[in-house]
Each structure stands twice: as structure tokens, then as C-alpha cells.
């Protein structure tokens, strides 16, 4: 990874930070995004120490805002002539339905729109690499059905259900993205990191679980208790593998589990009709005034 330029969203904590630490240790030039200057500076110091150099940079961005995503992409373009790896790691699970400044449900905005839009805005920098990789993280307990009439929780909203549906929609989009980039030097893959104790998982309340599994909440709390970053380090392994391993050079349109093994896509991902519908919806929602024209 020496000399490779890697962008990791949400790289100032949890799985993202552990991914950054690992890739910096392999010699990559790492850029991490976060929302807090204080936590970002602390994470950056750790990453630089792991790398044994100053080859790391922090960029602040609120990925629920499309304007912030455009600003982030523009900033990266002014500083780097190419991007070798983009890891869409940032995620959000909200307890209640909230709309962003763009009028999009927040879970859907961060988990679906943000990775799609950022990848789109950085396509030319990725293409400037000899072999670029886009890696996006899935969530746990991926459902086997996608409610197309409730993508943004318009009809019903339960925190973890909305999160899982958004992550499934993201998988649909990334599979379709991989298909549309065939023949270009950019691979697009998705991985499941596995269960980890992070600020996000520890923020989940009992009410955010579907009613049928709320009695299991004490077990969930036990699994997500603070562990000094050990579970997040383990959960970063699939991202690090897809970002750096020669074994997946040129491999695109695949889904990998927490042990970095190829896994079966959920059924909705393989449905061309669903992919077309979700792609069109996401493209429309992300089509702000500064957005590039969608790929045909």
C-alpha cells in the first residue's frame, strides 16, 4: 500500500479508525473524514503514530449534507491528483425519523446517498489510479426483502429496521454501480465487518429494535459494551482486505463476509428491476445543482 492514497469516511472512530490505522501501517497515505475536530485530531495523531510518518490527513464533513459532500470532494480534488481507494465506512442509525437539510431521511442520506454521491464525485480521481478500489460497508442482519414503498420510512419507522433497509438499498446501488463501471479501472465491492462495539452500536436503545427482538436487548448491550477497540479492530479486517489484498485485484461486484470470504448477495440485489428502481431514485435524490449527470 506504500504510496497509495486512501480515503476513509467516518475514519476518526470505531471500525473506520481501525481500518485507517491498519492501512497507514501498511504505508498508505490516509485521509479520514469526521464531524468533530477534537476527536478527529486525536484519531489523526494515532494514525500518524501507526504509520511512523505524517502521511495522514483529516477532513471534516457532515455526510448527511449533500453540500458538505460536494465541498469534501472539491477539497480532495485540489490536494490529490488521484485516489486509489475509497472506503465508504461512515454510517448512521437514528432513533427517530428525521429529515436532513436536503429533505431526505437521515439514515437513507448517510447510508445510501452519501456513498453513492461521494463515489460519483470522485470517479475521475479514481480513474486516474491504475487500479482503484471502492469498498462500502454493509450492516448486520441484512434483510432478504426491500420495501420499495418505505425506503425513507415514509410509512413506518423503527430505528434498526430503517438502518437495515438503508444498508440493503446501499448494497443494491453498489452492485449496480459495479455493473455500470465494467471495463473501467475501478472495482466496487461491499463487505460486512461483523459485530463491533462502537459509538454507533452503543447508541442503540431498546426502542430502536424491532418489537419481536426487544426482549434480547440485554444481550445486545452485552455484545456492544466497551472493549478498548478490540472488536472494531477485528471488524476492520474485511475492509483492509478489500482495500489492500492482491487476491481481489480487478475483482468487482462482490460481497464479502466478516472473514473476508465471498458471500451470496441478498436476493433484492440480484433483481434487475429492483436495482433499476433504486438506482433511479437515488440518482434523483442526489441530483443537486452541482451534481454531475448520471451515468446512462
Topology:
Layout: E1 5-8, H1 14-25, E2 29-34, H2 37-51, E3 56-60, H3 66-79, E4 85-88, H4 106-121, H5 123-127, E5 132-137, H6 159-180, E6 186-191, H7 199-202, H8 217-223, H9 230-235, H10 237-244, E7 255-256, E8 262-263, H11 272-285
Helix pairs in contact: 1-2, 3-4, 4-6, 6-11
Q: In percent, how helical is the residue content?
A: 40-55%
Strand residues, percent: 5-15%
Shape annotation: globular
Radius of gyration: 18 Å
Number of helices: 11
CATH C-level class is Alpha Beta
The total tally of domains equals: 1
The biggest sheet amounts to: 8 strands, mixed
Mean pLDDT: 90
Along the chain, the helix and strand elements come as: EHEHEHEHHEHEHHHHEEH
Strand order of the largest sheet: 3-2-1-4-5-6-7-8
| Beta-strand segment tally | 8
Structural class of the helix and strand makeup?
Answer: alpha/beta
**Poorly predicted runs:** 289-296
* CATH homology group: NAD(P)-binding Rossmann-like Domain
Question: Could you tell me how far the N terminus lies from the C terminus, measured between alpha carbons in angstroms?
Answer: 33 Å
The CATH architecture category equals 3-Layer(aba) Sandwich
- CATH topology heading: Rossmann fold
Amino acid at each position: 500500500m506504500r504510496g497509495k492514497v486512501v480515503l476513509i469516511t467516518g475514519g476518526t472512530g470505531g471500525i473506520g479508525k481501525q481500518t485507517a490505522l491498519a492501512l497507514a501501517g501498511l504505508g498508505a497515505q490516509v485521509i479520514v473524514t469526521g464531524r468533530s475536530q477534537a476527536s478527529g485530531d486525536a484519531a489523526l495523531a494515532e494514525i500518524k503514530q501507526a504509520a511512523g510518518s505524517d502521511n495522514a490527513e483529516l477532513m471534516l464533513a457532515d455526510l448527511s449534507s449533500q453540500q458538505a459532500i460536494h465541498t469534501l470532494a472539491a477539497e480532495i480534488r485540489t490536494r490529490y491528483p488521484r485516489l486509489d481507494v475509497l472506503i465508504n465506512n461512515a454510517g448512521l442509525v437514528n432513533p427517530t425519523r428525521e429529515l436532513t437539510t436536503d429533505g431526505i431521511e437521515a439514515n437513507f442520506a448517510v447510508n445510501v446517498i452519501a456513498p453513492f454521491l461521494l463515489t460519483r464525485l470522485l470517479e475521475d480521481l479514481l480513474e486516474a489510479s491504475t487500479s482503484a478500489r471502492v469498498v462500502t460497508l454493509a450492516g448486520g442482519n441484512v434483510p432478504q426483502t426491500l420495501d420499495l414503498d418505505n425506503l425513507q420510512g415514509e410509512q413506518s419507522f423503527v430505528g434498526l429496521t430503517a438502518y437495515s433497509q438503508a444498508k440493503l438499498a446501499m448494497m443494491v446501488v453498489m452492485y449496480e454501480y459495479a455493473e455500470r463501471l465494467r471495463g473501467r479501472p475501478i472495482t466496487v465491492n461491499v463487505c460486512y465487518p461483523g459485530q463491533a462495539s462502537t459509538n454507533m452500536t452503543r447508541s442503540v436503545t431498546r426502542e430502536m429494535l424491532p418489537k419481536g427482538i426487544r426482549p434480547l436487548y440485554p444481550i445486545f448491550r452485552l455484545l456492544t459494551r466497551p472493549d478498548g477497540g478490540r472488536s472494531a479492530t477485528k471488524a476492520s479486517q474485511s475492509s483492509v482486505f478489500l482495500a489492500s489484498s492482491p487476491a481481489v485485484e480487478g475483482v468487482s461486484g462482490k460481497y464479502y463476509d466478516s472473514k473476508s470470504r465471498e458471500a451470496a448477495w441478498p436476493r433484492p440485489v440480484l433483481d434487475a428491476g429492483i436495482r433499476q428502481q433504486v438506482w433511479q431514485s437515488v440518482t434523483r435524490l442526489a441530483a443537486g445543482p452541482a451534481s454531475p449527470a448520471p451515468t446512462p
